[in-house]
């Protein structure tokens, strides 16, 4: 135990060794080495993080907007300076390749950059003489103590979707990252303190269901943002909403890519490979279903051959295109879902279950896997695989393809590949999915636009990041005012004016 680093909590600006008796092993997915132990915070430690955040909010809410924004500018610079260290921590604990992790750090910087601009978004409205002698105006104010619960697959990007904007708007924050990849988000929070964030404004705890339930139930927590699985996110949304809190839950997905016969084949195939198998498929915006329309199915052999050639390697192999899955449990689940597809009649065009990586013989590896002749009744289609598995479906027409996508209960993202503007316009108008890519494989918007997943992929009215993110972390107060001059004021005023 003493030879393995123990991750601390971050409470009131200090790294606090937990008094817990329950610890979670953080395992390198490539080697199965225990690289750290993370505490499952005690109820008292969770309560302390919340009370500390409440105390810090009293002064932070009154800090000038310029002061809060300068902290975000400095944080962005510090993330840039520590980019290599952050990427290494992500790769070491999550398992994604270093280039993938570097991409996540870049996205984190963009999200913090958006937080640097909240002073131009967090603006009220003003109407002079809205009624006779009455002015009406609004102010946009922070909520108080806010909380974020994030999944393992993007350890710092998901955190950056939440706390920079929330804090820049004047809130204090309690962050509960995944215990599977804790070191990078903890470092990100420490960099925020170094950037000038006062103690207590940002606190980091680790825990499981009990910690999440406390955040949902505690009366001092005013809003919760969650990104993770559908099952957990639904429970959190219901519990937090019943407690009267503002809540948003970004849930699971089943993202489709429609390939039309007039698409540029090399572009569509190249993009499908990266979108389906990059990060070992462990992203909520991964393309997991390809729908080939009409003669576009003739490109399927090229897709299979391209996937077969992708290099699988350990997370520290910079030349690898597909790294390991995060855990042994994920490995077994993905293997089981592939087999369920075969058992239910899918055609296994490429099987990655028995892949071996000589440099990492104990790694949780599944290679790119492609199942054809998939129907929407199959379990491998209905469930989110969260692995490097692509289901292939066939449609006779664009209308048929749209119908396939719209039948699926999820609504995170969808893409279409075509050179026909009319087809693209019909698709974007008729598709019932929150984020649409036109010749773009993963339609995650830039950081100053909001993440707008829909239907079964989202609970709550507002998305993360962008303007909707600012709206989520603030409340609008409307003021109606009438001011009359004192009765002596007119005479005093006239006496001072030379009427000649």
UniProtKB/TrEMBL annotation:
Claim: Membrane is one of the keywords in the record: no
Gene3D superfamilies xrefs: Aldehyde Dehydrogenase, Chain A, domain 1, Aldehyde Dehydrogenase, Chain A, domain 2
Alphabetically ordered keywords of this record: NAD, Oxidoreductase
Residue spans crossing the bilayer: none
The protein's name in its UniProt record: methylmalonate-semialdehyde dehydrogenase (CoA acylating)
InterPro entries, sorted: Ald_DH/histidinol_DH, Ald_DH_C, Ald_DH_CS_CYS, Ald_DH_N, Aldehyde_DH_dom, MeMal-semiAld_DH
All copies of domain Aldehyde dehydrogenase, residue ranges: 17-478
Enzyme kind, highest EC tier: oxidoreductase
Originating organism: Herbaspirillum chlorophenolicum
PROSITE patterns: ALDEHYDE_DEHYDR_CYS
Keyword GTP-binding: no
EC number of the protein: 1.2.1.27
Residues forming coiled coils: none
Family of this protein: Belongs to the aldehyde dehydrogenase family.
Alphabetical list of Pfam families matching this protein: Aldedh
GO MF: oxidoreductase activity
């Amino acid at each position: 135990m003493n030879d393995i680093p123990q991750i601390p909590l971050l409470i009131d600006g200090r790294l606090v060794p937990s008094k817990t008796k329950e610890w979670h092993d953080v395992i390198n997915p490539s080697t199965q080495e225990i690289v750290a132990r993370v505490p499952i915070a005690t109820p008292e430690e969770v309560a302390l993080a919340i009370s500390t955040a409440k105390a810090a909010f009293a002064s932070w809410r009154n800090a000038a907007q310029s002061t809060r924004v300068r902290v975000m500018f400095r944080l962005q610079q510090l993330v840039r300076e520590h980019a290599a260290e952050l990427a290494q921590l992500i790769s070491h604990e999550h398992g994604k390749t270093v280039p993938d992790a570097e991409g996540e750090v870049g996205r984190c910087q963009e999200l913090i950059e958006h937080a640097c601009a909240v002073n131009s978004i967090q603006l009220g409205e003003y109407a002079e003489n809205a009624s006779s002698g009455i002015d009406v105006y609004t102010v946009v104010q922070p909520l108080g103590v806010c909380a974020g619960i994030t999944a393992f697959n993007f350890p710092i990007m998901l955190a950056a979707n939440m706390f920079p904007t929330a804090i820049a708007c004047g809130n204090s924050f309690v962050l509960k990252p995944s215990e599977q990849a804790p070191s990078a988000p903890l470092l990100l929070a420490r960099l925020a303190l170094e950037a000038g964030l006062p103690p207590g404004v940002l606190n980091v705890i680790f825990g499981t269901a009990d910690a999440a339930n406390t955040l949902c139930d505690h009366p001092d927590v005013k809003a919760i943002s969650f990104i993770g699985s559908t099952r957990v996110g639904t429970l959190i949304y219901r519990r937090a909403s019943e407690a009267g809190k503002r809540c948003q839950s970004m849930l699971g997905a089943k993202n489709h890519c429609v390939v039309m016969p007039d698409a540029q084949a090399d572009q569509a195939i190249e993009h499908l490979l990266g979108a389906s198998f990059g990060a070992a498929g462990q992203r909520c915006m991964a393309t997991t279903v390809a729908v080939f329309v009409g003669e576009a199915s003739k490109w399927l052999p090229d897709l299979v051959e391209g996937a077969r050639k992708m290099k699988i390697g350990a997370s520290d192999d910079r030349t690898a295109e597909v790294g390991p899955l995060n855990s042994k449990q994920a490995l077994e689940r993905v293997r089981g879902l592939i087999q369920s597809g075969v058992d239910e009649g899918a055609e296994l065009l490429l099987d990655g279950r028995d892949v071996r990586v000589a440099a990492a013989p104990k790694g949780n590896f599944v290679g790119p896997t492609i199942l054809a002749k998939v129907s929407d009744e199959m379990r491998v289609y209905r469930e989110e695989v969260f692995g490097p598995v692509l289901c292939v479906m066939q449609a006779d027409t664009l209308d048929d393809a749209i119908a396939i996508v719209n039948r699926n209960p999820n609504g995170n993202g969808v893409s279409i590949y075509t050179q026909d503007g009319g087809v693209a316009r019909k698709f974007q108008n008729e598709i019932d999915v929150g984020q649409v890519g036109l010749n773009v494989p993963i339609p995650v918007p830039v950081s100053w636009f909001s993440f707008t997943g829909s239907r079964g992929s989202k609970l709550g009215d507002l998305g993360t990041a962008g303007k909707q993110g600012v709206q989520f972390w603030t409340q609008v107060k409307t003021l109606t005012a009438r001011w009359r001059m004192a009765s002596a004021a007119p005479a005093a005023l006239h006496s001072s004016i030379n009427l000649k």
